[in-house]
Amino acid sequence: MAQVQRLPEWLKIRLPRPDTIQEVQQMMRAARLHTVCESARCPNLPECWSKKTATFMILGDTCTRACGFCAIKVGKPLTVDEEEPRNVARVAKELGLKHVVVTSVARDDLADEGSGQFARTIEALHEELPKAIVEVLVPDFKGKRWCVKNVIDAGPEIFNHNVETVPRLHTIVRPQAKYERSLRVLEMAKELNPKVYTKSGIMLGLGETQEEVVGVLKDLRSIGVDCVTIGQYLRPTMRHLPVSEFVHPRVFKEYAQIGEEMGFAFVASAPFVRSSYNAIDFSRKVMAERLQALES
Q: How does strand 34-35 pair with strand 133-137?
């Protein structure tokens, strides 16, 4: 029988009132939308939803890949919903979002890997919310350049793709992905549009060493990645990979300093940091630079 690990004090959170959480949930269900907050069992859901923010998950709630860390269900994917891009844009407007994050399950069953639905959603969001920052957190599209181009051509302000872990642990953590392919996807995005902000993230607590983490940061910076997120891996269920270590907050601060010294425009590094957690902090920089460009 697997033993339940006791969380350290710095990983305990106080839950907010449920009123707003229920309101966001009802809006999502009414529009037949999914969120990665629910599907991936994100620990920040109560805080984010109480602030009326959420990360939209397009292309259904069923993934074609089985990663060792992820709680999203695996199986036969849902049919692509043609109304989904408009529904995402409508709900984002109702929530009053200034920074909209859109992710998806992996769709290895689709010829375009789901990139077309990303493009349509970005376009719908820009039409409905012309002043909003649109951030996409995409799968690796099997490294297909034309799929990355589909997304970039739609004009997202931020292109995010997570490497998730260090190269040595990839076969365990992401058995159907490749570290080098993920780097190439991020590099392609910059090649296709040097002005797009690129972003990536890594989880700690899976057995990586400090040297390996610093190595990943160096790899990301070498291909021009602008923003990096570093957070603690938390086991979503007993079926998933166990936590090797609960990394102390001071270590996250050390990685933040290392990243800043490497030249990243923005580094978010703390136990509860996730790809889109407090994404508005980074988008303020994007908004400021966009405003400056419009005025010049």
A: unpaired
- Ordered by where they begin, the domains of the chain are 16-295 (3.20.20.70)
Q: Provide the pLDDT confidence category of residue 12 given band limits of 50, 70 and 90.
A: low
Rg, the chain, Cα only: 18
Q: What is the pLDDT of residue 38?
A: 47
- Written as one letter, the residue type at 68 is G
C-alpha neighbours within 13 Å on the C-beta side of residue 183 = 17
List the structure tokens of 289. 């630079």
Alpha helices in the chain, H assignment, sequence order:
19-30, 36-39, 45-50, 84-95, 115-128, 145-153, 170-173, 179-192, 210-222, 249-262, 280-295
- C-alpha 16/C-alpha 49 separation (Å) is 10
pTM: 0.84
Whole-angstrom Cα distance, residue 66 to residue 236? 14
Report how far apart, in Å, the C-alpha atoms of 201 and of each of 3, 20, 227 are: 28, 28, 8
Q: What is the pLDDT of residues 174-215, one digit of tens each?
A: 888 999 999 999 999 999 999 999 999 999 999 999 999 999
The 10s digit of each residue's pLDDT in 91-134 is 889 888 888 889 998 899 999 999 999 999 999 999 999 988 89
CA 291/CA 296 separation, integer angstroms: 9
Residue with tokens 């969380």: 7
Model confidence at 288: pLDDT above 90: no
CA dist., res. 65 & res. 174, Å (int): 9
Q: Measured between alpha carbons, how far is residue 248 from residues 128, 169, 251, 271, 275 in Å?
A: 42, 21, 6, 8, 19
The DSSP element (H or E) to which 100 belongs, if any, is: strand 99-104
What is the rounded end-to-end Cα distance, in angstroms, of the chain?
A: 64
Per-residue pLDDT tens over the stretch 136-175: 999 999 999 999 999 999 999 999 999 999 999 999 988 8
